[in-house]
Amino acid sequence: MPDLMVRIGEETVSLRTCHWVLLGPDGCAYASEYGDGALDAERAHRNFTPRQRDRDRQTRQGYTVQLLTKDQWRKRAAPCFYGKCPHRKQAAA
Fold first, then answer.
1. Which of 3, 20, 35, 59 could staple 15 via S-S, CB 3.0–4.6 A?
2. Alpha-carbon separation of residue 12 from 35, 71, 76, 77 (angstroms)
3. Is 84 left (phi over 0), alpha (psi -120 to 50) or beta?
């Protein structure tokens, strides 16, 4: 099976090396899946949040789904999943 390639910023990478990430309005990552788990942000959001009304509510509240390269994921999402992100520290203050 051929590799699907995507362009993120100035970089062209294989979709399978990327990650779809559900980001809250504060920038904190709440869910993640490998890039080849969905072909677009809408399908990735459906994977994260199966019920339409819950997806609609998240969208109204400012949640977004973004495709990140592995390096971007390590910088932006990994700290959230490992409890080391600045978002939760700001919310606790």
1. 35
2. 13, 13, 19, 20
3. alpha
